[in-house]
Amino acid sequence: MIAEALFGPFADFEFMRRALAGCLALALGATPVGVFLLLRRMSLMGDAMAHAILPGAALGYLAFGLSLGAMTIGGIIAGIVVALAAGLVARSSILKEDASLAAFYLLSIATGVMIVSLRGRNLDLLHVLFGSVLALDDASLLLISAITTATLVALALLYRPLVLECFDAAFLRGVSAASPIAHYGFLVLVVLNLVAGFHALGTLMAVGIMILPSAAARLWVKRLPAMLGLAVLIAFASGVGGLLASYHADVPAGPAIILATGIVYVLSLILAPGGMLGARLDRRPHLES
Amino acid sequence: MNARDTILELDNLTLGYDRHPAIHHLRCHITRGALVAIVGPNGAGKSTLFKALTGELQPLQGHFRIHTGKEGIAYLPQQSELDRSFPVSVFDMVSMGLWREIGAFRGLSRSQAERVRAALAAVGLSGFEARQIGTLSGGQLQRARFARMMLQDANLLLLDEPFNAIDARTIEDLVALILQWHAEGRTILAVLHDLTLVRHHFPETLLLARECLGFGPTAEILTAEHLATARRLAGEFDATAPVCHRPEAETA
Asked: Which Gene Ontology cellular component terms are annotated (chain A) (predicted)?
């Protein structure tokens, strides 16, 4: 009975299996990138960049309709342009990077919604904003998995410079020229994974699968490799949980997945060693030294 | 003094932000193997000088030459530039001092791991290998950064206020390390505020207050008169300062 409720939907319906594969790919690719976003204190920047992708995807949509390739390329270009432009504004004006990003993404989302509504119906706008994880076709699945593969390879190559760039950038700049490679390479990874996430979860929630599992994992573990593993696990489990909830309770899948990560996050926030009650719940006596 | 003995030449160097100089027409030659304290009030341009030497800041005017190659410099910025909440262990952090050998991809060989442990032992942090850097005290973290610097094995060491908010015992240990590096023939420039410590251990002093107020043997530089001038000069800031027309050729 329970097994039937857990496995039945995936055994019976291909669209559920596709959604499951999409969630697994996003958990493996986007979530580790989210861990670094969180540790670099760029969570809100990730959010801003997710919004920035909208006008690019919308332009692709305006030109070619609901075409995967056009919307993907448009989204990637718009995301990278905004990330670079925000960095440029921050370096060459007195505005900080967060202020310039906020300015860019507000303009982006207004432009994007304007472009979509120029041509489309509200249904299309909903697809772009909130994704359609239950309607992933072959091309979308291939795209998401390709981005995940590229991300894992790139993270493996960038891992050491990226870790140094996060916690001691001044030292990295002193010993190597890799600092800008780590920084901009990472920004490109963020954009790519936001675009991957946007097909499944929409521009507004794509960043949720990156940040929420990472924040929850941070509360439980102290070491970075453990944090990466746990975040991926939480993301995938939330994907499964969200899909099942969506199937059984007949609610939209994208928000269900993000809410599932949210439940894990809130529980972690309360119970985990790094959370609000965790340290107080630890009743073990203190050590001698 | 011939060029072979000089490790660092500052030639009419002017550094600053928004055209306001933080270092004004600085000329000086640092001899290979020198142990130099850089002294001056806050805002005297000491950290700015290090930023320029490590290539983070372009000079407004003049230039400098470093005769070690870029690999030969190790720079210890002020502690505040390090994110202590990042989850990384003391061993991993210190082993990054071997960057020139292992780069971005290679792992540590057994002998390299041994050197990391030796460096940790040399700064008194044996047994701390697996601890997260966030659990270290300020003094312990500074010891770890010294261990990392030791592994960098550089010719020219730049230390920016290495003893800020550090207790006496730790300072004693770290000064001993600096003196050992000096004895090994490395050139060391350290920004310091504790004049007693400078007088005691540092043979040469560069006194800065935006202008260079003197460079030479510590006892001749750290006089009451010089220090009073330094205090007066560093406090001045004129938002409407006129353009400086001091010619390139003038000697400071």
From this structure: ATP-binding cassette (ABC) transporter complex
- Interchain contact B244–A (C-beta under 8 A): no
* Cβ-count burial A223-249 (b if 16+ within 10 Å, e if not): ebeebbebbbebbbbbbbbbbbbbbee
Residue closest to B213 by CA, chosen among B26, B64, B61: B26
Q: Does domain A1-279 have CATH number 2.60.40.10?
A: no
Domain of residue B222 covers 1-68+156-252
Chain A residues whose CB is inside 8 A of the B96 CB are 160, 164, 168, 171, 175
Mutation choice for A interface testing from B88, B94, B135, B142 by most A CBs within 10 A: B88
| Residues B59 and B95 occupy one common structural domain | no
Domain assignment present for residue B26? The answer is yes
Interface test with B, best of A159, A173, A175 (most B CBs within 10 A): A175
Of the candidates B107, B128, B154, which is a domain's last residue? B154
Asked if residue B163 and residue B50 are part of one domain, the reply reads yes
Q: How far apart are CA B65 and CA B71, in angstroms?
A: 14
Q: Identity (one letter) of the amino acid at A138?
A: D
Q: Which chain A residues are closer than 8 Å to B105 by Cβ?
A: 157, 160
Q: Is the domain of B39 the same as that of B124? A: no
ipTM over 0.90: no
List the beta bridge partners of residue B15.
Answer: B23
Euclidean distance between CA atoms B26 and B18, whole angstroms: 18
The answer as to whether B73 is a domain residue is no
Write down the pTM of the prediction.
0.85
Per-residue pLDDT tens digits of chain B, which is 252 residues long: 455 688 888 888 888 887 788 888 888 899 999 999 999 888 788 888 998 888 888 888 888 888 886 558 899 988 777 888 899 999 999 999 999 888 888 888 999 999 999 999 999 999 999 999 989 998 999 999 999 999 999 999 999 999 988 899 999 999 999 999 999 999 999 999 999 999 999 999 999 888 888 899 999 988 888 888 888 876 666 667 777 777 654 444
> In chain B, how many domains are there?
2
